[in-house]
Amino acid sequence: MKDAQPRTIYLKDYQAPDYWIDTTHLTFDLHEDYALVTSVLQMRLNGEKEFESGTLPALTLHGEELDLVSLHRDGEELEGDQYQLAKGTLIVSVKQPTFELQVVTRIRPQENTSLEGLYKSNGMFCTQCEAEGFRKITYYLDRPDVMSVFTTKVIASQARYPVLLANGNAIDKGELENDRHYVTWEDPFKKPSYLFALVAGDLECIEDRFTTMSGRDVTLKIFTESHNIHKCDHAMVSLKKSMRWDEEVYGREYDLDIFMIVAVDHFNMGAMENKGLNIFNSSCVLASPETATDATYQRIEAIVAHEYFHNWSGNRVTCRDWFQLSLKEGFTVFRDAEFSADMNSRGVKRIQDASLLRTAQFAEDAGPMAHPIRPESFIEISNFYTLTVYEKGCEVVRMIHTILGAGQFRKGTDLYFDRHDGEAATCEDFVKAMEDASGVDLTQFRHWYSQAGTPVMTVTDKYDAESGDYHLTIAQSCPATPGQEQKKPFHIPVGIALLDEQGQLLPLNAAGDKEQVLSIKQSEETFVVKGCKSKPLPSLLRNFSAPVRVRYDYSKDDLVFLMKHDTDSFNRWDACQRLGVAAIEQLVEQPQQAVDPQLVDAFGAVIADAAMDKAVKAEMLCLPSEASLAEQADVIQPLAIVAARKKVKQAIAVAHKDALQALYNELNHERVYKPEAADIAERTLKNVCLGYLSAVNEAECVQLAAKQYDDASNMTDRRAALGCVIDAHYRDEALVERLLTDFYDRYKGNSNVMDDWFAVQSSSAELGTVEKVKALMQHDSFDSTSPNKLRSLIGGFTRNMTHFHTAGGTGYEFLADRVIELDKQNPQVASRIMTPLTRWKKFEPVTSGLMKNALERIKAVHNLSTDVYEVVNKSL
Length: 876
Ligand code: PHE
Ligand code: ZN
Description:
By secondary structure, the chain is α+β, with helices and mostly antiparallel strands. Among the domains are: 10-202, Sandwich (Immunoglobulin-like), CATH 2.60.40; 312-551, Neutral Protease, domain 2, CATH 1.10.390.10. It is 39% helix and 21% strand. The protein has an 8-stranded mixed β-sheet with strand order 6-5-9-3-2-12-15-14, with no helix packed on it. A 5-stranded mixed β-sheet has the order 17-18-19-21-20, covered by helices on one side. The two termini are 21 Å apart. 50% of the residues are buried. The structure holds phenylalanine and zinc ion. The site of zinc ion (ZN) has 4 residues, from helix 3.
């Protein structure tokens, strides 16, 4: 409810600020029903800007939901005629080019349900300031190009809040009257307000140390509520690995004497990179073998790394404005992806990332909110923490890495960090540093920053038996997106290889290279490979070398051949996916047909392939998800997709039951849980087998899953088995009930596991009806103020293709009600959770109309937040 009339902000309107804030002294006096914030700012006119001679521009500070208690300029209390409060701003008249401003505000963290600014989670105080949350704490120049040195004094009750934290190093502490105490923190590094953080609570911590490459000793602490303190070790191990990796791979050393992580339950996102004091969603920190799955362990490792890496890519070098968000996010996602690849299976990491991109980011790029990784305009910046900015942004950085090569890329990052340390930079600065360091011209490459939409690469080929010449023609185009009708050709790095009839890679050039990265720059280009004895089969876009769609007319035989022989694990997996998509799409059109026998055989060959890497094998055996099938469909028919996919899965399961059972048995052995790549691969593959077996309509198959559930010694196996029983072909409702109750009884004290208990039900094709979801909202363990709970229960339901899209549109109406209700409480979550509705245009007409009705009902609500306002208006 920021503005009565939401305003669009444009990149082209960017202007440097009129004033800088050299130092910021904050004092927080925290009480049970309010907090008093005193801010003392040393202000300085921006001398690089030109002003009308003899006048000093008024200072316009941002501020929202604040009570102004007092205002002093150079010690003088200002009266009403010397300042002005207008929507979201405080305008102060200025007399001197440098001056001190003291602002005292009163805020109510206890009533802050938006989880932006200062708020309370489970009795502790915490902050979230990115992107524009600091203005809910005090009046300030809340923009990332204003960087200041912060000192923060936190005062609170000693008994209730024994731990008081802020950014930097603790420089003073003491006791006060009335059982109150204080700690003062000083952060020597200049930073923008969005990186400010404060925590006050009754917390415990685990402590460790790290010696940096130059020999400095750093204290590492992870804080959580005492009952979770034994679940922080994995995060600590991950942190130390990240610190070492960033030194080894990027030459980046940590810069403060202490690094802290705090886990909180109520958090809008995954985690936040505040300088020296990262605040995490507890779901991205806490793990024990009994309560966290392998996927959770890996997610924690990746997010701890991501936030740590931001210390350089985001904090030391920050963003000039929020249009440059991908400068820090795309680059940091690339850094964490490479870290995870080094720590785990590189091939599988690539498959998972490409799969997420193609499923969810491609859908975003094809929807009403499509935007370039550097958007040109927005109404609400919170809506632009997107898969495009993060994941496609990462792919853009990866393409630079591919084009330059690892060595030149590292020279580029060194130059970038060197040049811009302590500054607020732009995407252009990043690309320029890459160009300057490598000498490679990236002029055309820059279109990736300014053009939205997913390019389509159409590949055709021709073989001349007489000359032995093979011609590969690559054409590119990019569909129109909102505000961008015409696109210029992209510079696309395309990894290719050619396979001969034996499945061997052919030399592509005189040098004998068997793999090559082509630089495609024209709308159509042809490459000729000489000396081919027969028509080769192309392996295209190897390792998913660019975020594009590839169209090439592979026959089913071609795909089966690639699955067997391609040396690129991404492309082997992709061939398998293509085969799966074709088989399922065929059944969507003609549901009575038999399942493609070639697909069933091909999957049998994968199951039987004992030599294949287990992690890759597990990925290959996963049929394309419902979401990915929906993304690839021209017109989405949700129930037909669900039915077709299920039929294919059952056919594979029935045909290969014995082999699946044998593989399951081979992998199903007891051992001490370790979240390590080799073990994870075995568990994943085993549980994929169990998933197929439970698609066989036999009681003994469900019993097998039930046994795994009961015997499980870790959450990975128990959770997988639960999912299998719930969705099993052979229905045993009493068993489903028993396991759900058992799961609840075992884990009801663990909020993060309860999230999953809600999600497993709401997302289930068997259980997740609207009625069920409504009933679960009334459950004691549900908490409507928790974004995690909302994402699990409501978000889980919106991913439930069966029930969310059930005829009559009751699912859409339910979601619209939740969005309207939530918008008053937490606009960021409201706006995110409605994403599935915004894709209405892709559905078959009846469904589509019902989705649109639900959106229109949201649009009609008065006083929508800027968050929901922007999404609903752009979608209709
Ligand atoms: N900057 C955080 C990250 O990517 C994400 C975030 C954005 C968290 C906004 C909270 C609010 O690491
Ligand atoms: Zn980030």
